[in-house]
Design goal:
Blueprint (H helix, E strand, L loop, with lengths): L6 E7 L15 E7 L5 E7 L6 E7 L5 E7 L14 E7 L5 E7 L5 E8 L5 E7 L16 E7 L5 E7 L5 E8 L3 E8 L21 E8 L4 E7 L5 E8 L5 E7 L18 E7 L5 E7 L13 E3 L4 E8 L18 E8 L12 E2 L2 E4 L6 E6 L36 H4 L3 E6 L4 E6 L4 E5 L6 E9 L2 E9 L1
Antiparallel strand pairs: 1-2, 2-3, 4-5, 5-6, 6-7, 8-9, 9-10, 10-11, 12-13, 13-14, 14-15, 16-17, 17-18, 18-19, 20-21, 21-22, 23-24, 24-25, 25-28, 26-27, 26-29, 29-30
Length: 472
Amino acid sequence: KKSENEFFIYGYTFSTDGDVQSGNNGHSDLWVVKINSQGDIIWENTYGCTGIDDARDMILTPDGGFVMIDRIGIGGGDVTNFYGSGDVWMCKCDSLGNIEWEKTLGNEGLDNCVSMIINSENNIMMIGAAQKHGGLVECYPDEVWGDVWLVELDLQGDIISQHCYGGSDYELGYDIEETGDGYIFNASSYSNDGDVSGHHGPSGGNDATNDYWIVEISDTGEIVWEYCYGGYDSDNPIFITQTPDGGILAIGTTFSNDGDVSGNHSNPSWDTDIWAVKLDSLGEIEWQRCYGGWGSERLENPHTILKKDDYNYVIASSTDYSPSYDIQCDIHANGDRDAWIFEIDLEDTTGLFETPVLQGNIMVYPNPAGDWVVFELHTSTNKNTVIPTTAGRRNPTANSSPLKQRDSSHSIGMTTLDGSAVVIVNVFGQEVASLLIKSEKTVWDTRAIKSGIYFYSVDIEGKIESGKIVIQ
Protein backbone atom coordinates (compact mmCIF):
# COMPACT_ATOMS: atom_id res chain seq x y z
CA LYS A 1 0.00 0.00 0.00
CA LYS A 2 1.52 3.29 -1.13
CA SER A 3 -1.46 5.55 -0.42
CA GLU A 4 -5.22 5.31 0.04
CA ASN A 5 -5.55 5.09 -3.75
CA GLU A 6 -2.35 3.28 -4.75
CA PHE A 7 -1.65 -0.40 -4.22
CA PHE A 8 0.95 -2.80 -5.61
CA ILE A 9 0.43 -6.50 -6.28
CA TYR A 10 3.58 -8.60 -6.59
CA GLY A 11 3.86 -12.20 -7.71
CA TYR A 12 4.68 -14.22 -10.80
CA THR A 13 2.92 -15.19 -14.00
CA PHE A 14 3.20 -17.66 -16.87
CA SER A 15 0.63 -15.72 -18.94
CA THR A 16 0.93 -13.40 -21.92
CA ASP A 17 -2.73 -12.51 -22.32
CA GLY A 18 -5.66 -11.06 -20.38
CA ASP A 19 -4.39 -8.52 -17.88
CA VAL A 20 -0.77 -9.53 -18.62
CA GLN A 21 0.11 -7.33 -21.60
CA SER A 22 3.79 -6.63 -20.89
CA GLY A 23 5.27 -9.78 -22.40
CA ASN A 24 7.27 -12.65 -20.92
CA ASN A 25 11.00 -13.38 -20.80
CA GLY A 26 10.41 -17.13 -20.65
CA HIS A 27 8.55 -19.59 -18.44
CA SER A 28 7.42 -17.59 -15.37
CA ASP A 29 8.21 -13.90 -14.85
CA LEU A 30 7.83 -11.59 -11.90
CA TRP A 31 4.63 -9.57 -12.35
CA VAL A 32 4.00 -6.21 -10.68
CA VAL A 33 0.57 -4.60 -10.94
CA LYS A 34 -0.35 -1.15 -9.67
CA ILE A 35 -4.05 -0.66 -8.96
CA ASN A 36 -6.25 2.07 -7.50
CA SER A 37 -8.74 1.75 -4.64
CA GLN A 38 -11.44 0.55 -7.09
CA GLY A 39 -9.20 -2.27 -8.33
CA ASP A 40 -8.53 -0.71 -11.73
CA ILE A 41 -5.11 -1.43 -13.21
CA ILE A 42 -2.96 1.70 -13.49
CA TRP A 43 -0.01 -0.18 -14.99
CA GLU A 44 1.49 -3.66 -15.03
CA ASN A 45 4.90 -4.99 -15.94
CA THR A 46 6.80 -8.27 -16.07
CA TYR A 47 10.46 -8.77 -15.09
CA GLY A 48 12.96 -11.59 -14.94
CA CYS A 49 15.22 -14.13 -16.59
CA THR A 50 14.58 -16.50 -19.47
CA GLY A 51 13.82 -19.35 -17.07
CA ILE A 52 11.67 -19.63 -13.96
CA ASP A 53 11.53 -16.58 -11.68
CA ASP A 54 10.65 -17.44 -8.08
CA ALA A 55 9.12 -14.28 -6.57
CA ARG A 56 10.23 -13.72 -2.97
CA ASP A 57 9.63 -10.16 -1.77
CA MET A 58 8.91 -6.59 -2.83
CA ILE A 59 9.12 -3.44 -0.69
CA LEU A 60 8.42 0.23 -1.38
CA THR A 61 11.41 2.57 -1.17
CA PRO A 62 11.62 6.12 0.26
CA ASP A 63 12.12 7.63 -3.22
CA GLY A 64 8.66 6.47 -4.35
CA GLY A 65 9.85 3.40 -6.21
CA PHE A 66 10.21 -0.23 -5.17
CA VAL A 67 12.75 -3.02 -4.98
CA MET A 68 12.08 -6.73 -5.46
CA ILE A 69 14.01 -9.95 -5.02
CA ASP A 70 13.74 -13.18 -6.93
CA ARG A 71 15.56 -16.51 -6.93
CA ILE A 72 16.82 -17.45 -10.38
CA GLY A 73 18.42 -20.52 -11.95
CA ILE A 74 19.49 -18.95 -15.25
CA GLY A 75 20.26 -15.51 -16.70
CA GLY A 76 19.03 -13.60 -19.73
CA GLY A 77 16.04 -11.33 -20.17
CA ASP A 78 16.34 -8.50 -17.66
CA VAL A 79 19.10 -10.37 -15.78
CA THR A 80 22.60 -9.25 -16.77
CA ASN A 81 24.66 -11.63 -14.64
CA PHE A 82 24.21 -15.21 -13.53
CA TYR A 83 26.91 -16.91 -11.47
CA GLY A 84 25.62 -20.48 -11.24
CA SER A 85 23.32 -22.99 -9.46
CA GLY A 86 20.90 -20.57 -7.79
CA ASP A 87 21.36 -16.81 -7.46
CA VAL A 88 19.50 -13.90 -5.91
CA TRP A 89 18.30 -11.26 -8.36
CA MET A 90 17.49 -7.80 -6.97
CA CYS A 91 15.76 -5.19 -9.12
CA LYS A 92 15.08 -1.52 -8.28
CA CYS A 93 12.33 0.31 -10.19
CA ASP A 94 10.94 3.83 -10.18
CA SER A 95 7.34 4.71 -9.37
CA LEU A 96 6.23 3.85 -12.93
CA GLY A 97 7.84 0.42 -12.91
CA ASN A 98 10.85 1.29 -15.03
CA ILE A 99 14.05 -0.56 -14.08
CA GLU A 100 16.62 1.79 -12.53
CA TRP A 101 19.17 -0.91 -11.72
CA GLU A 102 19.38 -4.66 -11.30
CA LYS A 103 21.96 -6.76 -9.50
CA THR A 104 22.67 -10.46 -9.15
CA LEU A 105 23.88 -11.52 -5.69
CA GLY A 106 25.76 -14.78 -5.25
CA ASN A 107 28.42 -17.01 -6.73
CA GLU A 108 28.71 -20.51 -8.19
CA GLY A 109 27.11 -22.01 -5.06
CA LEU A 110 23.46 -22.10 -4.02
CA ASP A 111 22.26 -18.67 -2.88
CA ASN A 112 18.79 -17.89 -1.57
CA CYS A 113 16.60 -14.96 -0.51
CA VAL A 114 13.36 -14.70 1.43
CA SER A 115 12.57 -11.14 2.56
CA MET A 116 13.76 -7.53 2.87
CA ILE A 117 13.25 -4.40 4.95
CA ILE A 118 14.23 -0.75 4.60
CA ASN A 119 16.22 0.17 7.72
CA SER A 120 16.55 3.51 9.54
CA GLU A 121 19.44 4.50 7.24
CA ASN A 122 17.14 4.07 4.21
CA ASN A 123 19.19 1.07 3.13
CA ILE A 124 17.96 -2.33 1.95
CA MET A 125 18.49 -5.25 4.34
CA MET A 126 17.99 -8.66 2.69
CA ILE A 127 17.91 -12.01 4.48
CA GLY A 128 18.32 -15.46 2.96
CA ALA A 129 21.16 -17.98 2.71
CA ALA A 130 24.52 -18.51 1.03
CA GLN A 131 26.39 -21.77 0.52
CA LYS A 132 29.94 -20.77 -0.46
CA HIS A 133 32.44 -17.96 0.01
CA GLY A 134 33.56 -16.07 -3.08
CA GLY A 135 32.14 -13.83 -5.78
CA LEU A 136 29.73 -11.42 -4.11
CA VAL A 137 29.58 -13.55 -0.96
CA GLU A 138 32.26 -11.98 1.23
CA CYS A 139 31.43 -13.82 4.47
CA TYR A 140 32.22 -17.47 5.12
CA PRO A 141 29.26 -19.90 5.15
CA ASP A 142 29.76 -23.61 5.90
CA GLU A 143 30.55 -24.46 2.23
CA VAL A 144 28.30 -27.56 2.34
CA TRP A 145 24.68 -26.70 3.07
CA GLY A 146 24.45 -22.96 3.62
CA ASP A 147 24.21 -20.32 6.34
CA VAL A 148 21.94 -17.35 7.00
CA TRP A 149 23.08 -14.51 4.73
CA LEU A 150 22.35 -10.87 5.63
CA VAL A 151 23.19 -8.26 3.00
CA GLU A 152 22.82 -4.48 3.40
CA LEU A 153 22.75 -2.35 0.23
CA ASP A 154 22.09 1.32 -0.44
CA LEU A 155 19.37 2.48 -2.82
CA GLN A 156 21.90 2.56 -5.67
CA GLY A 157 22.56 -1.18 -5.25
CA ASP A 158 26.01 -0.92 -3.68
CA ILE A 159 26.75 -3.49 -0.95
CA ILE A 160 27.48 -1.83 2.41
CA SER A 161 27.93 -4.90 4.61
CA GLN A 162 27.13 -8.60 4.80
CA HIS A 163 27.29 -11.35 7.42
CA CYS A 164 26.84 -15.12 7.59
CA TYR A 165 25.46 -16.99 10.60
CA GLY A 166 24.95 -20.70 11.27
CA GLY A 167 26.43 -24.10 11.97
CA SER A 168 27.60 -27.12 10.02
CA ASP A 169 24.13 -27.91 8.61
CA TYR A 170 21.61 -25.70 6.76
CA GLU A 171 20.29 -22.37 8.04
CA LEU A 172 17.89 -20.20 6.03
CA GLY A 173 16.89 -16.71 7.21
CA TYR A 174 13.22 -15.86 6.84
CA ASP A 175 12.43 -12.51 8.42
CA ILE A 176 14.32 -9.60 10.00
CA GLU A 177 13.30 -6.51 11.97
CA GLU A 178 15.31 -3.54 13.12
CA THR A 179 15.42 -2.78 16.85
CA GLY A 180 16.69 0.24 18.75
CA ASP A 181 20.30 -0.96 18.71
CA GLY A 182 20.48 -3.67 16.07
CA TYR A 183 18.29 -6.36 14.54
CA ILE A 184 16.42 -9.53 15.37
CA PHE A 185 15.96 -12.26 12.79
CA ASN A 186 14.45 -15.72 12.63
CA ALA A 187 15.77 -18.61 10.64
CA SER A 188 15.21 -22.28 10.06
CA SER A 189 18.13 -24.20 11.56
CA TYR A 190 19.22 -27.84 11.32
CA SER A 191 22.50 -27.37 13.23
CA ASN A 192 23.62 -27.67 16.82
CA ASP A 193 27.12 -26.23 16.52
CA GLY A 194 28.90 -23.11 15.32
CA ASP A 195 26.69 -20.13 16.10
CA VAL A 196 23.72 -22.41 16.86
CA SER A 197 22.99 -23.98 20.25
CA GLY A 198 20.09 -25.71 21.96
CA HIS A 199 18.66 -27.58 18.95
CA HIS A 200 15.76 -29.80 20.07
CA GLY A 201 15.54 -32.55 17.48
CA PRO A 202 18.15 -34.53 15.55
CA SER A 203 20.69 -32.23 13.89
CA GLY A 204 22.93 -32.89 10.92
CA GLY A 205 22.49 -35.62 8.33
CA ASN A 206 19.44 -36.85 6.46
CA ASP A 207 17.32 -37.31 9.60
CA ALA A 208 17.79 -33.74 10.86
CA THR A 209 14.75 -31.66 11.76
CA ASN A 210 14.65 -27.87 11.91
CA ASP A 211 13.97 -25.48 14.80
CA TYR A 212 13.04 -21.84 14.98
CA TRP A 213 16.41 -20.11 15.39
CA ILE A 214 16.01 -16.56 16.71
CA VAL A 215 19.03 -14.27 16.91
CA GLU A 216 19.59 -10.75 18.16
CA ILE A 217 22.55 -8.95 16.58
CA SER A 218 24.11 -5.56 17.24
CA ASP A 219 24.14 -2.79 14.64
CA THR A 220 27.61 -4.04 13.61
CA GLY A 221 26.37 -7.61 13.13
CA GLU A 222 27.72 -9.21 16.31
CA ILE A 223 25.51 -11.87 17.94
CA VAL A 224 24.03 -10.61 21.24
CA TRP A 225 22.10 -13.81 21.99
CA GLU A 226 20.68 -16.75 20.08
CA TYR A 227 18.28 -19.58 20.97
CA CYS A 228 16.58 -22.49 19.26
CA TYR A 229 12.85 -23.01 19.87
CA GLY A 230 10.70 -26.02 19.05
CA GLY A 231 10.38 -29.73 19.64
CA TYR A 232 11.70 -33.02 18.31
CA ASP A 233 9.98 -32.71 14.93
CA SER A 234 10.34 -29.87 12.43
CA ASP A 235 9.40 -26.31 13.37
CA ASN A 236 9.55 -23.71 10.61
CA PRO A 237 9.63 -19.96 11.40
CA ILE A 238 8.02 -17.45 9.06
CA PHE A 239 7.45 -14.12 10.82
CA ILE A 240 9.13 -12.11 13.58
CA THR A 241 8.40 -8.74 15.17
CA GLN A 242 9.27 -6.76 18.26
CA THR A 243 6.46 -6.16 20.77
CA PRO A 244 5.75 -2.96 22.76
CA ASP A 245 7.25 -4.45 25.93
CA GLY A 246 10.59 -4.97 24.18
CA GLY A 247 9.91 -8.66 23.65
CA ILE A 248 9.55 -10.68 20.47
CA LEU A 249 6.70 -12.50 18.75
CA ALA A 250 7.61 -15.27 16.30
CA ILE A 251 5.06 -17.17 14.20
CA GLY A 252 5.51 -20.17 11.96
CA THR A 253 4.43 -23.81 11.74
CA THR A 254 5.20 -26.89 13.81
CA PHE A 255 5.03 -30.68 13.54
CA SER A 256 6.08 -30.98 17.20
CA ASN A 257 4.12 -31.47 20.39
CA ASP A 258 6.97 -31.66 22.88
CA GLY A 259 9.95 -29.57 23.99
CA ASP A 260 8.86 -25.93 23.80
CA VAL A 261 5.68 -26.84 21.88
CA SER A 262 2.43 -27.98 23.48
CA GLY A 263 -1.19 -28.02 22.40
CA ASN A 264 -0.60 -29.12 18.79
CA HIS A 265 -3.98 -30.14 17.36
CA SER A 266 -2.62 -31.98 14.31
CA ASN A 267 -2.07 -35.60 13.46
CA PRO A 268 1.33 -36.13 15.18
CA SER A 269 4.42 -36.09 12.93
CA TRP A 270 2.29 -35.85 9.78
CA ASP A 271 0.58 -32.46 9.85
CA THR A 272 1.34 -28.95 11.09
CA ASP A 273 -0.27 -26.33 13.30
CA ILE A 274 0.44 -22.62 13.26
CA TRP A 275 2.77 -21.95 16.22
CA ALA A 276 3.20 -18.57 17.93
CA VAL A 277 5.81 -18.04 20.64
CA LYS A 278 6.22 -14.86 22.70
CA LEU A 279 9.66 -14.08 24.13
CA ASP A 280 10.95 -11.45 26.51
CA SER A 281 13.77 -9.10 25.48
CA LEU A 282 16.40 -11.72 26.39
CA GLY A 283 14.80 -14.57 24.47
CA GLU A 284 13.08 -16.35 27.36
CA ILE A 285 9.68 -17.87 26.51
CA GLU A 286 6.75 -16.04 28.11
CA TRP A 287 4.01 -18.03 26.38
CA GLN A 288 3.37 -20.18 23.32
CA ARG A 289 0.26 -21.40 21.56
CA CYS A 290 -0.69 -23.65 18.66
CA TYR A 291 -3.55 -22.75 16.31
CA GLY A 292 -5.28 -25.17 13.98
CA GLY A 293 -7.18 -28.39 13.65
CA TRP A 294 -6.62 -32.09 13.05
CA GLY A 295 -5.36 -31.52 9.51
CA SER A 296 -2.39 -29.48 8.28
CA GLU A 297 -2.26 -25.68 8.54
CA ARG A 298 0.39 -23.88 6.49
CA LEU A 299 1.97 -20.44 6.04
CA GLU A 300 3.62 -19.49 2.76
CA ASN A 301 5.83 -16.46 3.58
CA PRO A 302 6.16 -13.55 6.06
CA HIS A 303 3.53 -11.57 4.16
CA THR A 304 0.80 -14.03 5.11
CA ILE A 305 0.82 -12.36 8.55
CA LEU A 306 -0.49 -8.79 8.84
CA LYS A 307 0.47 -6.77 11.90
CA LYS A 308 -2.56 -4.49 12.27
CA ASP A 309 -1.09 -2.75 15.30
CA ASP A 310 1.15 -3.59 18.25
CA TYR A 311 -1.35 -6.08 19.65
CA ASN A 312 -3.43 -7.50 16.80
CA TYR A 313 -2.31 -9.83 14.02
CA VAL A 314 -4.25 -11.29 11.11
CA ILE A 315 -2.90 -14.65 9.94
CA ALA A 316 -3.71 -15.92 6.45
CA SER A 317 -3.02 -19.65 6.39
CA SER A 318 -4.44 -22.67 4.63
CA THR A 319 -6.02 -25.88 5.90
CA ASP A 320 -7.13 -29.23 4.50
CA TYR A 321 -9.53 -30.32 7.26
CA SER A 322 -12.49 -28.79 9.10
CA PRO A 323 -14.40 -28.35 11.30
CA SER A 324 -11.88 -29.26 13.99
CA TYR A 325 -10.63 -27.50 17.13
CA ASP A 326 -9.83 -23.86 16.21
CA ILE A 327 -11.18 -24.25 12.67
CA GLN A 328 -14.96 -24.04 12.83
CA CYS A 329 -15.70 -22.84 9.31
CA ASP A 330 -16.66 -25.39 6.66
CA ILE A 331 -14.00 -26.37 4.16
CA HIS A 332 -14.95 -25.78 0.52
CA ALA A 333 -12.13 -27.59 -1.24
CA ASN A 334 -12.80 -31.13 -2.42
CA GLY A 335 -9.70 -32.96 -1.24
CA ASP A 336 -7.59 -29.81 -1.61
CA ARG A 337 -6.83 -26.81 0.63
CA ASP A 338 -8.90 -23.82 1.73
CA ALA A 339 -7.66 -20.47 2.97
CA TRP A 340 -8.09 -20.13 6.74
CA ILE A 341 -7.87 -16.56 8.06
CA PHE A 342 -7.96 -15.70 11.75
CA GLU A 343 -6.94 -12.89 14.08
CA ILE A 344 -5.04 -13.07 17.37
CA ASP A 345 -4.28 -10.46 19.99
CA LEU A 346 -1.39 -10.09 22.42
CA GLU A 347 -2.72 -7.54 24.88
CA ASP A 348 -3.95 -9.21 28.08
CA THR A 349 -7.15 -7.16 28.23
CA THR A 350 -8.00 -6.95 24.52
CA GLY A 351 -11.50 -8.28 23.94
CA LEU A 352 -12.15 -8.73 27.66
CA PHE A 353 -15.02 -7.17 29.55
CA GLU A 354 -16.19 -6.40 33.07
CA THR A 355 -19.83 -6.22 31.96
CA PRO A 356 -21.17 -9.63 30.85
CA VAL A 357 -21.53 -9.89 27.08
CA LEU A 358 -23.17 -12.80 25.26
CA GLN A 359 -20.90 -14.23 22.58
CA GLY A 360 -22.43 -17.12 20.66
CA ASN A 361 -24.01 -19.49 23.18
CA ILE A 362 -21.86 -18.65 26.18
CA MET A 363 -21.42 -15.73 28.54
CA VAL A 364 -18.22 -15.59 30.60
CA TYR A 365 -17.96 -13.12 33.47
CA PRO A 366 -16.28 -11.38 35.10
CA ASN A 367 -13.32 -11.08 32.77
CA PRO A 368 -10.71 -10.13 33.99
CA ALA A 369 -11.62 -12.22 37.04
CA GLY A 370 -10.66 -12.54 40.67
CA ASP A 371 -11.89 -15.41 42.86
CA TRP A 372 -14.37 -16.92 40.43
CA VAL A 373 -15.51 -17.11 36.79
CA VAL A 374 -19.04 -17.92 35.67
CA PHE A 375 -19.70 -19.76 32.41
CA GLU A 376 -23.37 -19.12 31.62
CA LEU A 377 -24.68 -21.25 28.76
CA HIS A 378 -27.50 -20.32 26.41
CA THR A 379 -29.00 -23.20 24.44
CA SER A 380 -32.23 -23.64 22.54
CA THR A 381 -33.93 -24.51 25.86
CA ASN A 382 -32.50 -21.52 27.74
CA LYS A 383 -32.85 -18.01 26.36
CA ASN A 384 -33.61 -15.75 29.31
CA THR A 385 -31.29 -15.56 32.30
CA VAL A 386 -30.60 -13.19 35.16
CA ILE A 387 -27.00 -11.96 35.18
CA PRO A 388 -25.32 -10.76 38.38
CA THR A 389 -24.06 -7.19 38.11
CA THR A 390 -21.22 -7.48 40.65
CA ALA A 391 -17.82 -7.54 38.92
CA GLY A 392 -15.42 -10.29 39.96
CA ARG A 393 -12.91 -9.15 42.56
CA ARG A 394 -10.43 -11.04 44.65
CA ASN A 395 -12.65 -10.49 47.72
CA PRO A 396 -16.32 -10.46 46.66
CA THR A 397 -18.98 -10.32 49.35
CA ALA A 398 -20.62 -13.57 50.37
CA ASN A 399 -23.94 -12.48 48.89
CA SER A 400 -22.48 -11.57 45.49
CA SER A 401 -20.17 -14.55 45.01
CA PRO A 402 -21.59 -17.37 42.87
CA LEU A 403 -19.46 -19.75 44.94
CA LYS A 404 -22.22 -19.40 47.56
CA GLN A 405 -25.11 -19.62 45.08
CA ARG A 406 -24.60 -22.79 43.08
CA ASP A 407 -27.81 -24.38 44.31
CA SER A 408 -29.88 -21.53 42.86
CA SER A 409 -28.95 -22.34 39.24
CA HIS A 410 -31.79 -23.32 36.94
CA SER A 411 -31.71 -26.60 35.06
CA ILE A 412 -31.10 -26.51 31.33
CA GLY A 413 -31.69 -28.97 28.52
CA MET A 414 -29.30 -31.79 29.45
CA THR A 415 -30.20 -33.75 26.33
CA THR A 416 -27.87 -31.39 24.43
CA LEU A 417 -25.21 -30.85 27.11
CA ASP A 418 -25.14 -34.11 29.05
CA GLY A 419 -21.50 -35.08 29.58
CA SER A 420 -20.14 -31.77 28.25
CA ALA A 421 -17.46 -29.88 30.10
CA VAL A 422 -15.75 -26.51 30.08
CA VAL A 423 -12.07 -27.27 29.47
CA ILE A 424 -9.55 -24.65 30.58
CA VAL A 425 -5.88 -24.61 29.54
CA ASN A 426 -2.95 -22.30 30.28
CA VAL A 427 -0.77 -20.51 27.71
CA PHE A 428 1.33 -23.66 27.30
CA GLY A 429 -1.75 -25.68 26.31
CA GLN A 430 -1.74 -27.63 29.59
CA GLU A 431 -5.16 -28.42 31.03
CA VAL A 432 -5.75 -26.76 34.40
CA ALA A 433 -9.46 -27.49 34.85
CA SER A 434 -12.31 -29.50 33.36
CA LEU A 435 -15.69 -28.39 34.69
CA LEU A 436 -18.59 -30.76 34.12
CA ILE A 437 -21.70 -28.87 32.99
CA LYS A 438 -24.61 -29.70 35.27
CA SER A 439 -26.69 -26.53 35.13
CA GLU A 440 -27.19 -23.23 33.40
CA LYS A 441 -24.24 -21.68 35.26
CA THR A 442 -20.91 -23.39 35.77
CA VAL A 443 -18.57 -21.71 38.23
CA TRP A 444 -14.78 -21.98 38.19
CA ASP A 445 -13.24 -21.36 41.60
CA THR A 446 -9.99 -19.52 40.81
CA ARG A 447 -8.83 -18.69 44.35
CA ALA A 448 -5.97 -21.21 44.03
CA ILE A 449 -5.22 -20.39 40.38
CA LYS A 450 -2.09 -18.44 39.51
CA SER A 451 -2.67 -15.03 37.91
CA GLY A 452 -2.27 -15.07 34.14
CA ILE A 453 -3.97 -15.81 30.82
CA TYR A 454 -6.12 -18.92 30.30
CA PHE A 455 -8.21 -20.26 27.44
CA TYR A 456 -11.54 -22.08 27.65
CA SER A 457 -13.45 -24.25 25.20
CA VAL A 458 -16.77 -26.06 25.40
CA ASP A 459 -18.87 -28.07 22.95
CA ILE A 460 -22.38 -26.57 22.90
CA GLU A 461 -24.87 -28.37 20.68
CA GLY A 462 -22.10 -29.51 18.34
CA LYS A 463 -20.37 -26.11 18.12
CA ILE A 464 -17.06 -25.37 19.83
CA GLU A 465 -17.18 -22.10 21.80
CA SER A 466 -13.81 -20.78 22.99
CA GLY A 467 -12.20 -17.65 24.37
CA LYS A 468 -9.67 -16.11 26.72
CA ILE A 469 -9.82 -15.36 30.44
CA VAL A 470 -7.47 -13.25 32.51
CA ILE A 471 -7.08 -14.11 36.20
CA GLN A 472 -5.79 -11.16 38.22
